[in-house]
Structures are given as C-alpha cells and as structure tokens.
Amino acid sequence: MTAHSLHGEPPSPVPHKPHQLAADRATRRARRRLGRVISIGAAAALAVALGAGCSKSKPDAAAGFTGGPVPVLVAQAIQRTVPIQLQAIGTVEAYSTVSVKSQIDGYIAAVYFREGQDVKKGHLLVQIDPRPYQAALNQAEANLARDRAQLLQAITDEKRYSYLLEQGVGSREQSDQAHANAQALRATVMADEAAIQTAKINLGYTRIYSPLDGRTGVLILHPGNLVKANDASGVVVVINQVRPIYVDFYLPERSLNEIRQYMAGRQLAVQAHSKGNQQSPSEDGTLSFIDNAVNANTGTFELKGLFPNAHERLWPGQFVDVTLTLSERPDTIVVPSQAVQTGQDGTFVFVVEHDMSAKPRPVVVGDSLGGQTVIERGLKPGETVVTDGQLRLFPGAKVKIKGGLEQPAQQVPS
Questions:
Q1: In this structure, what is the dihedral angle of CA atoms 251, 255, 257, 263, given to the nearest 10 degrees?
Q2: Which run of H or E residues covers position 349?
Q3: Distance between CA 269 and CA 327 in Å, rounded?
Q4: Coil/strand/helix, residue 336
Q5: Could you report the per-residue pLDDT of 224-275, keeping only the tens digit for each?
Q6: What is the CATH number of the domain that holds 367?
C-alpha cells in the first residue's frame, strides 16, 4: 500500500494501456462504417422499389398507346339549320291575381267553393249574412212610400193655393209656402230612391262572386269569421288566372339591341321547361313585354313571355328554364359537345382520317344547344370526330371504332 492508502484517501485511477485505447477507437470506426453502409443500402432499396413501380407503370401507359388501335366512339360533323337562342332562368307569374275581400261589414255565413278549385267568372264564392242589409232595404223602401204620400199632399196644396192666388182670395205667402213644401218633398223622395239603391247594392255585396276564370288558393277566412269593408287583413281567398300565364325573366343589357332588332315586325318564340329537367314537355309561347328601362344595379332588363298553358304545366311561382329564339342560321356545322376538347392552344377535336388515324385539329366553337356545339371554323360537313376515348389518343394514333357505337351528330332542336 502507498502512504495515501494508509491515511484512508481514495486510490488514484489506474490508466488504460495504449493497446486497449487503440482497440476501442477501431471498434467505433467500424460501427460508423457499418451504419453508413446500412443507410446506403436502404436508400438503394428504396430507389429500386421506386424504379420498379415506374417500370411497371410505363409499360401499362405504353401499352395504351402502342398496344394496338385505340377503341373510340365517333360522330360525323353535320351541316344543318340551327336556332339563335338566348337562355335564362325565369319565374312563372299568374296572368291576373285577385285578392277577394268584402265590401261590407258582417260575418261569413257560407262558402261555396273548395280550396284549389277551378272557378269561372261569376261563380258564387262567399255568402255574408244578408239580414241586416235586407232590413236596411226594407226601411228605405218604407221611407220612400211615406215621403211619396206626403209629396202627393204637398202637390195638392201647391195647386190649391196657386188657384186661390189666381182668384185673388189667397195670399202670396201661402202659395209660396205650399210650393216650397212640395219642392222639399220632391227632393226627399229622390233621396229615398237613392237610399234604396244603396241598400240594394249593399245587399248585393253580401254575395261575393268570382271576377275572373281562375284557380282558388287557400281559404283564409272560414264561415263564422267577421269581415270588415276593405280591411287589408280581410282577404277571404286569392284567385290566380293561370290560362294564359306569364313567365318573367331577365337578360343582360348587351342583348337588348339584338332582341329589339329581331322582334321588329314579328313575334319572337319563347320556350319554358321545368327547372333542370330538359326532358319534360316544353311550353311554347311568345315574347309579350320588354321593360322600358335597364336596371342600373344589375345591368339587366325584364322580359315576359305569354303562354297559353293549356295543360297547366306552368304554375305561379315556379322556376323554369327559358329559351328565347331570335332567328335561325342555315348551313351551320355542329358536332356533339363531348367531341370538343380544350388544350393549351385552345379548343380542338380529334378528326379520324381515312387511314383510321386520329389527328387533333383546332376549331372555333360557337353556342351549345341541346348537347350539340356549333363549329364556326375548322371542320367540314361529313368529317368524323372522336366523341369518346380522347385521353388515350396522340397525333397520328391509330383508332378502332367500337362496334355498333358509331353515331352521327344528333339534330339540334329548332
């Protein structure tokens, strides 16, 4: 033991030997190299996996282009007359709407229609209690009878005092008084006759008739309810005339001059379809109204189409798709809308050549009508265009028309 250990102090650490330190450093270097090798191997494996994925997708894509002719659907470009049309969303409005109210005070004694019933002009709708008005008429007639009797007596007195005055035995004052009494009673009789007419009119108001042909709505006031003359809240029922009927719609102001030009000297046709359902039967009408001002807030102007609505397909408040036909364009080329594609250089179609190769061709398109698109420039009548399968095509690709699926362009509705 050393002197330090004898005094209880801790022993000093024993140093490592030189060969042990070298061995430790070599071990650490080997571990680092092994880690780098593993990382490189993992990266290589990932690259191989990605390369394998790409190599699998490339043959598939190539197979779509080089694995034989591409199956497609085609249609022919057709030359025909197409309409010049404007589209809008419209709202159906009743041709005429009447809110039925009472013109007298009373209570509703009876109702003579059903809710939603078609009524004709003159149809009895409501009966208001007539008894007070019948009594008023009887009283007016009685007053007239009384005043007529008094008038007869006054006329007799007038004649008598006039005769006495002529004979010089009567006074002028008596004659003038008799004449005044007779004149007053004549006026009273005329007032009584007017009162009878008023009583008859009021009695007639107890029976409310339909002022037009139309369909009744919800019955608002039922029998037993009190009504007041011309009360704003006293509407008994609302009647809408639906034959004929209006469709109200709006168009941008840029169309105003064009519409006015085409409607000069002739009526423009208007069609209405149920909103979002072009397959439903359409209603045909005519343009009947153009507003006299453009709305400065929206930049649009109001129009109305008048429709016979014989089958009552149009209903007040309904939203409809409106088509306004301005004119027709003869000899116009059309193709199915799905044949038109959009690329970096604009719109184009794939044209099938005689050798069954597809080549893209730039076109200038016009309006789309009924699933067909007008081609302003770029196609000739009779040329064949691809309508399905364009995603697998490239310039010069060979195509094969699917059996039984070749179809010409459909006719555009006019």
A1: -70
A2: strand 346-352
A3: 9
A4: strand
A5: 999 999 888 899 999 999 999 999 999 999 999 999 999 988 899 999 998 8
A6: 2.40.420.20
The tokens describing 283, both together, are: 């209603």
CATH of the domain at 150: 1.10.287.470
Measured CA to CA, the distance from residue 292 to residue 77 in angstroms comes to: 42
In 263-363, alpha helices (H) = none
Residues 6+ apart with CB under 8 A from 332: 79, 80, 81, 82, 366, 374
**Element containing residue 205 per DSSP (H, E):** none
For the chain, how many structural domains are there in total?
4
State how far the Cα of 370 lies from the Cα of 410, in Å rounded to an integer.
9
3-state SS, residue 115: coil
Greatest alpha-carbon pair distance for the chain in Å reads 189
Radius of gyration of the chain (CA): 49
92-128 confidence digits (pLDDT tens)? 999 999 999 999 999 999 999 999 999 999 999 999 9
CB neighbours of 111 closer than 8 A, spacing ≥ 6?
125, 126, 127, 219, 222, 223
Structural domain of residue 36, as residue ranges?
16-67
Strand stretches in 176-234, DSSP E: 207-209, 214-216, 226-227
Amino acid (1-letter code) at residue 180: A
The whole-angstrom separation of Cα 234 and Cα 228 is 7
Model pTM greater than 0.70? no
Phi and psi at residue 265, in whole multiples of 5°? 85, 0
Sign of the CA dihedral with 399 first, then 400, 405, and 411 last: positive
